[in-house]
Amino acid sequence: MGIVHLRAAGVSLVLDTTGPELPRVVHWGADLGELPEAELAELVRVSVQPLTGGTADEPYRLSVVPEMTAGWLGTPGLSGHRGGTAFSSAFVTTGVEVDAGRDADGSTATAEDGAPLAASVTVEAEDEAAGLRLAWRLELLADGLLRHRAGVTNLGVEHRAGSPFDLSGLDVVLPLPREAREILDFTGRHLRERSPQRHEFTAGTHLRETRRARAHDGTLLLLAGEPGFSYAAGEVWGTHVAWSGNVRTFAEQEMPSGRRLLGGGELLLPGEVRLEVGESYEGPWVYASYGRGINELSRRFHDFLRSRDSHPRGPRKALINVWEAVYFDHSLPKLVALADAAASVGLERYVLDDGWFRGRRTDNAGLGDWYVDEGVWPDGLHPIVDHVTGLGLEFGLWFEPEMVNEDSDVARAHPEWILRTPHRMPPPARQQQVLDLTVPQAWQYVYDRMHAILSEYRISFVKWDFNRDLVDAGRQATGSAGYHEQTLATYRLLRALRAAHPDVEFESCAGGGGRADLGILALTDRIWTSDCIDPLERQTIEAGTGLLLPPELMGSHIASPHSHTTGRRHDLSFRAATAMFGHLGVEWDLTSASEADLAELGSWVAAYKEHRDLLHGGDVLRVDSPDPAIRVHGVVAEDGGEAIVAVVQLTTSAHHPPGRVRIPGLDPERTYRVRPLAPGDRIPGGGGSWAPAWWPEGARLSGRSLAEVGVQVPLQHPEHSVLLHLVAQ
């Protein structure tokens, strides 16, 4: 036990484990360099707040699981009770283990998911009076990202043998310095995810809760930083809860001390976790990132995700999803024609969406009956699968495994499989209910049916949808809330199917981007970013989602000319340039497209395939534009040798033309050939005098000049973008 200094990739964490109390974080932020033990001890000593009037006679030092008994009067880390007693904890540390991040042979250690591990700390503590054991683990990953979690075990107490402990919450926290004065997080709704909201830190708790087991309105990241922090400037700290059920994330300023922190964990409903003697609960990983500017903070998440064993390694196949082309009208000639058109423009995967199974002619029946509809598909799916794969495309299929229509064979045969309290049915949403996967027979039924379909057909991709909120989600067998156990059962189902079908990619979709957390992404290969494919809306949606996820994990499709969700119309160049910076797909009835549109689409697909190694392996660049009408973003190769940058005019600008655009993030000492990237080089109206002098021949500029001076670009119209290709000479 002592003072531990963990360092990686420009980040330091100083942890005080001296004494019997739970560990305290003294510093989390910029790297402090090598520090002698004496200075670490001094850091701890100078960080203790002095006593003031009206407070306890002992100074309180914030622990990673804050306790009221130690003097903390903000949000407690652990809350619960044992039949009305043990309502507060007083843990005493019983063991501290520090791992320096090296295996016995001296090689770099890895975490369970394969991510390189710089260091880890494991702490155990007990509260004998409450009959509880606490375990807390922190990992500092090689990219500077932190993650920590806590677990609790009911040890029981002698005078109340066999008494359960009702756990209400278990949150972990990290402190913030006083410089963190501003909060940025995200809200939204279905079809409009990741809308940013920003405000000053205030006294009290800024609490974001998800109570529906998905989070169109929830925040993937909660950030706090120096006033005005931006993509490139200002210290900023952020946190994310890696859990696919109900979560809580909070930024808190405790008064009167003014201490600030970021915390989070699973949101537990009353009675949801009752620990019998000997039983344990482990909270989800809570991730934390620090950076000078949001770009650096975000890059740590991207580097971590790319370092995992499960991260997709091969080329991200350009696909077509046929939902908006046919909806429930599964006509084989139409679907075959779509496949032919998809192959003609160079697409590589074909996804058959909702409507292929029994009784599914609308969205009010059939869900849960995972048998191919014999009336629509008398020969099964073989005709379309064989045609698609015969064209050289992979075949994908839509499922919604966790849901059921009341008008379905499975619901009529097994009403006890619906996730509900014993006394009432939850209100329907999209004419469906939730299948209780905690019922072993229900879980096995879904597994068996999906396994059978995936075994019979050559399926390479599963779109796993989740189209309704969990509302009043009780378990009929117990009458208790079912959110926690349902989430675990979903994880088990995904894990089992992936083990049985290791070559199948799985996409997480929840009415779009309602389930995009790192918990579900440990078991899936991408997320469907939003059901809204309007490229103007997607500019904001993907900017927010992309702070957590790298481009290759975000499904981004080229929509039809007329948006099905907003009614807007956009040129193909704007639709395609937006989708270029994700895992590209098409959601458009290509049989209605003109020959000219198909030719242009083929050019976009070819450009994506040519550059996807860079798009999906480089560092994401976001530029702080002085003009709110202009968004500048792109990807820079890790070695700085190449970049692709999009300059997007979102709306009309106060200036005409909008002026020079700076491009930071390049090697300042190298010279770059800057050219417009076809087909993203088109200028509305044919160009002419709207083109700057260097367009289209290109220019040669140093990385320093591009960052400090910039270049003029031919933007004139709102909802238009151009792409630049920069190659070091």
Number of DSSP E strands? 36
Sum up the overall morphology in one term: globular
Tell me the β content: 25-35%
Point out poorly predicted stretches.
none
Helix content: 10-25%
Characterize the main sheet: 10 strands, antiparallel
User: What do the pLDDT scores average to?
Assistant: 96
Question: Helix/strand/pairing class, anyone?
Answer: alpha+beta
Describe this structure in words.
By secondary structure, this protein is of the alpha+beta class. Helices cover 19% and strands 29% of the residues. It contains twelve helices and 36 strands. Strands 5, 6, 7, 8, 11, 12, 14, 15, 19 and 20 form a ten-stranded antiparallel beta sheet that branches. Strands 21-22-23-26-27-28-29-30 form an eight-stranded parallel barrel. Strand 11 (182-189) and strand 12 (192-200) form a beta hairpin. Helix 9 (535-545) packs parallel to helix 10 (572-579). The radius of gyration is 27 Å and the shape is globular. The two termini are 54 Å apart. The model has no long low-confidence stretch (mean pLDDT 96).
Describe this structure in a few short sentences.
The chain is 19% helix and 29% strand. The chain is α+β, with helices and mostly antiparallel strands and 729 residues long.
Supply the key terms.
eight-stranded parallel beta barrel, 729 residues, globular, ten-stranded antiparallel β-sheet, 12 helices, alpha+beta, single chain, 36 strands
Strand and helix map with partners:
Elements: E1 3-8, E2 11-16, E3 24-30, H1 37-47, E4 78-81, E5 92-99, E6 117-127, E7 132-141, E8 146-154, E9 165-170, E10 172-176, E11 182-189, E12 192-200, E13 204-210, E14 222-225, E15 235-241, E16 247-253, E17 260-266, E18 273-275, E19 280-282, E20 286-292, H2 294-307, E21 319-321, H3 323-326, H4 332-344, E22 349-352, H5 382-390, E23 394-399, E24 403-404, H6 409-413, E25 433-434, H7 440-456, E26 461-464, H8 483-500, E27 505-508, E28 526-528, H9 535-545, E29 554-559, H10 572-579, E30 583-587, H11 595-615, E31 619-623, E32 630-636, E33 642-649, E34 671-676, E35 699-702, H12 703-708, E36 720-728
Parallel strand pairs: 21-22, 21-30, 22-23, 23-26, 26-27, 27-28, 28-29, 29-30
Antiparallel strand pairs: 1-2, 2-3, 4-9, 5-6, 6-7, 7-8, 8-19, 8-20, 9-18, 10-17, 11-12, 11-14, 13-16, 14-15, 15-20, 16-17, 24-25, 31-32, 32-33, 33-36, 34-35, 34-36
Helix pairs in contact: 4-5, 7-8, 9-10, 10-11
